[in-house]
Design a protein that fits this description.
This protein has 18 helices and 28 strands. The chain has about 650 residues and is an alpha+beta fold. Helix 4 packs antiparallel against helix 17, helix 5 runs antiparallel to helix 6 and helix 15 packs antiparallel against helix 16.
């Protein structure tokens, strides 16, 4: 497969969002130790003791500030097991100068940092450009050394060009041995003198709520809030499946249990009160595809309540707008629109709903969200050409540059398989529930059967499962305009915007369209091997055991020849969830390579003990602290570990979660 170069652009774009925001605040941040502290209202992303983002409520909001250590410090950070409570040891020249305890409090949008300094320790506070900060110290009684009201204006962007539609407020307060001094421009100096001090950061949906939340937090001592927060996290952790008692036979038990805990906390801290889960520190939106994997991970861990909340989030958005897109705002209006958003993500959402039903038996909830599921089904049908669906424009292989964007309107074996698998589950359930009249049900089943019958001819050739089929659009008229990524990417390009089709069927943004003709793309069939893992992961019934075994044997052969993961056997980059999908399939077939892939996957854990967006030569790159990759990989690891001793995840783990 050819290297298309776009992957470099994507990596740069992902990192650029963080670095641009940081640069605007005069500080370039690291990416290697990122973790999230959050309670669904307020989220705080840290890189060790550096606070690189604070936002919420809601979770779709721009960061209100950064608080960074200012000096030649070394930091060692540890999280309390089962809890999103972090302890940082700050040293200088080998000597401890301060200890921080950081946590987002339970039930209120507030963050508390307890500082015990044995020597003067300094931090720099960065105000975002465009925000208004006001000294509010005079409104508090003795004991508050400094207070600042932080106002983010309506219209500020929370992601790309998506604005918040109302003002947002936060307050920053320091007490005890801590003080704040204004410096030049948009910076403040925070000084921790020897002794004990506290930093409070509070949020609110509006100014009134922010003031009331601040009063609420100050009405209790930090020690009381810390114990309440510990109890909340203990309750959450105790709801998890007790894998400790199930893995005595497994030789890597301790490392896996620690990773399970890391991933569980990652998922919970990034889940908003609305139910949506953030896709990482630089994606403050709810992505449909990502949250399919997240839901699978939550179900594998026994968190049915959290899995249901994701579906309820989509139901709420769909009820209000009548549609879903690639990503939606979380507690704030906004839609991240890509090409062909009616496909792939809608297939994932249908399967996700039936995964939840299988684990919970919650028929009443399924009946409630039925109109949304019907919309998912109808949305996909509209795009069937020659019994094939196209690619979604944010599909991983396209977004990552592994597959060229010119294939978007080709037939997608993955999107079509999602349609088939989700359709089988949906129509079988509709028949059992008697929710459609028989003639309508028969007509819909006929459509599904036509797509199933055509699938082998459309997507299987002498090389195996095709990723794309260019024949889908032969003789078909493509839309004159579409919202998505410009294919030209010339200087000044708008990147993601409305695009117009030129005479060569290439889509260009308004700035690039007049500048280039952009030649017609050569049609090419691709065979991305990791696509053949999808049937295993979504439990497709379309392929026989023999066919699936053939798929795996080809992947194994490639791995043994290249020692590289399936998404890029000819390159040095892999998507972060390939480890989990490969292990999942190998475990299902009990293939001996599963042990090697498990070790490789666990070796890819980052410095926070979770998985990231992309890897180069098994080293993390792209967005860290990722929910989608971590959830997929932990489910595969659990499945592997339980079957290591002959146990079945479905029989034992899921049963225990009901």
């Amino acid at each position: 497969m050819k290297y298309h170069g776009l992957i470099k652009t994507v990596f740069c774009f992902c990192a650029l969002w963080v670095l641009t925001e940081a640069a605007a605040q005069n500080h370039i941040v690291s990416l290697d130790h990122i973790a999230c502290l959050g309670n669904g209202y307020l989220a705080v992303y840290q890189d060790r003791a550096d606070i690189i983002q604070v936002f919420g409520p809601p979770y779709s909001a721009p960061s209100a500030m950064q608080v960074m250590l200012n000096g030649d410090y070394e930091v060692t950070s540890k999280r309390e097991p089962g809890r999103a409570i972090w302890h940082h040891e700050v040293t200088r020249d080998g000597k401890q100068v301060a200890r921080f305890t950081d946590f987002v409090v339970q039930g209120v949008p507030g963050f508390i940092r307890k500082v015990h300094a044995s020597d003067t320790t300094r931090m720099i506070l960065h105000q975002p450009a465009g925000d208004t900060w006001t000294d509010n110290t005079g409104n508090y009684q003795e004991g508050v050394n400094h207070a600042i009201v932080c106002e983010t204006p309506s219209g500020a962007f929370y992601y790309a060009t998506y604005p918040i539609t109302r003002k947002l407020y936060h307050q920053l307060i320091v007490t005890g041995s801590m003080g704040i001094e204004k410096e030049a421009g948009l910076t403040y100096r925070v000084t921790c003198n020897p002794g004990e001090g506290y930093m409070y950061i509070t949020g609110g949906d509006n100014y009134t709520d922010n003031v009331l939340n601040t009063r609420d937090i100050l009405s209790e001592s930090p020690a009381v809030w810390l114990e309440k927060t510990r109890q909340h996290w203990d309750d959450f952790t105790n709801r998890r499946i007790d894998f400790n008692s199930m893995l005595d036979h497994f030789p890597d038990k301790e490392r896996l249990l620690e990773t399970i805990d890391n991933v569980a906390v990652l998922l919970k801290t990034q889940q908003s009160v609305e139910g949506s889960v953030l896709a990482g520190h630089n994606y403050h939106m709810g992505y449909v595809r990502d949250q399919y994997g997240v839901s699978r991970g939550l179900l594998a861990l026994g968190y049915l309540e959290e899995a249901k909340s994701i579906l309820n989030y989509y139901w709420t958005v769909w009820q209000k707008h009548g549609y879903l897109k690639n990503a939606q705002g979380i507690g704030m209006y906004g839609f991240h629109v890509h090409e062909n958003d009616d496909v792939e993500i809608t297939g994932y959402l249908m399967i996700q709903a039936f995964d939840y039903l299988k684990a919970s038996g919650d028929q009443a909830f399924m009946r409630m969200i039925l109109p949304m599921l019907e919309w998912c089904w109808e949305s996909q049908k509209k795009h069937l050409m020659k019994e094939m669906l196209p690619f979604n424009g944010d599909e991983t292989y396209i977004a990552g540059g592994i597959l060229p964007r010119t294939t978007i309107n080709d037939g997608s074996s993955e999107a079509t398989l999602l349609f088939i698998t989700g359709g089988e589950l949906f129509l079988e359930w509709m028949a059992k529930q008697g929710l459609w009249e028989q003639p309508l049900l028969a007509m819909e089943k006929e459509i599904l059967e036509r797509v199933k019958d055509a699938y082998p001819a459309n997507f299987i050739d002498e090389k195996g499962l095709m990723t794309n089929n260019p024949k889908r659009t032969l003789g078909e008229a493509l839309p004159a305009f579409r919202h998505g990524v410009c294919e030209a990417r010339l200087e000044g390009c708008q990147v993601v915007d409305w695009t117009q089709k030129n005479e060569n069927d290439r889509y260009l943004c308004p700035r690039c369209y007049p500048k280039t003709k952009l030649e017609r793309a050569e049609k090419e069939i691709f065979h991305i091997q990791s696509v053949t893992l999808t049937p295993f992961y979504i439990h497709s019934s379309l392929f026989s055991d023999r066919e699936k075994e053939h798929f795996i044997n080809e992947l194994v052969k490639t791995y043994q020849n290249t020692k590289k993961m399936p998404s890029r056997p000819d390159g040095d980059v892999t998507v972060g969830y390939d480890y989990g999908l490969f292990l999942y399939a190998l475990t299902e077939l009990m293939h001996p390579l599963k042990d090697t892939v498990y070790e490789m996957m666990m070796g890819a854990l980052d410095k926070r003990g979770v998985w990231v967006e992309y890897y180069r030569e098994n080293q993390p790159m792209g967005t860290r602290y990722r929910a989608w990759e971590s959830a997929i990989n932990i489910e595969a690891a659990i499945r592997y570990a339980l079957r290591y001793g002959g146990e079945s995840l479905t029989r034992k783990a899921v049963t225990q979660s009901l």
